[in-house]
Amino acid sequence: MSSNNANIIDGKAFSNHLIETLIPDIKTISNIIGRPPTLAVILVGEDSASQVYVRNKIRQTEAAGMISIEHRLSADTDEKTLLAQVKALNDDDKIDGILVQLPLPKHINEHSVIQAINPEKDVDGFHVVNAGKLATGLAGLVPCTPLGCVLLLRETLGDLSGFNAVIIGRSNIVGKPLGQLLLAENASVTIVHSRTKNIEDLTSQADILIAAIGRPEMVKSSWIKKGACVIDVGINRIPAPEKGVGKFRLVGDVDFAQACLVADSITPVPGGVGPMTISCLLRNTVLAAAQRKGVEIGFK
Ligand code: NDP
Asked: Fewer CB within 10 A of the terminal residue: the chain, N end or C end?
């Protein structure tokens, strides 16, 4: 990937570094509780992107010295069966973290399933107890993708205090928690969305611009302030006929080539926020295990 000016933020390298820093804590917990921190992943159905994500999560969890247990359920699994599986994992003392891979099949109410997870084991940080803790400044489990964005921003910019941050997207899993995290970092936060008027006027004032939209390459250079730091959360599959018939490639929500001309630094897709989401899941699993078992570790 080439850039004209912008510094390309290497999410893969930083993610690997983050996982390295977890290893001593994983060893400490394993020694004290007699087993490694353990993550249970539930995958319902055959969604191909979800299968790839789950495979990566499990591989990296195990590579870091933790245990990962996968529960695969067929696409026609009913909500009652899934809730019973979640309850069994809540009740199992050897499970520290529970992740239900989203999206779930349409006939299952995602909200009911997420709220059924014990908040202490909610390593995705989507439970209302953890969302409430984040909103009120209490320690809890924080959603992985927003946490990954903030860690990348701190690594790139240092202290985020006083920066003008604009987030495009207000979902419960990315935009809103990211807004809370950036407020906690003393940034000034604006969240824009599909109903925002004159969106470009707002984004082009951002020192930090974060795109979490799900629209391939929507953010053009005119949306970006010269010298901004751009974090592209989007993962979009678009046709790539140059690679062959029926082939796809991944792009973000930001037009990368254009953005490189104006931004000071930018995350690529793939290789930016995506790897950070996984390392933050590992971090949350370590944290959940430590908090459940009362083990002191190097971070909170
Ligand atoms: P959602 O669909 O839940 O939310 C998208 C947000 O973008 C909404 O707030 C929506 O506004 C806003 N939006 C949509 N169209 C426009 C538009 N034309 N102008 C302005 N705002 C718009 O998506 P997610 O938050 O779940 O995910 C966003 C992207 O991030 C996706 O590409 C997803 O694949 C990716 N992602 C990547 C992860 C990673 O690990 N890197 C993890 C999670 C997500 P409104 O609310 O008004 O509808």
From this structure: C
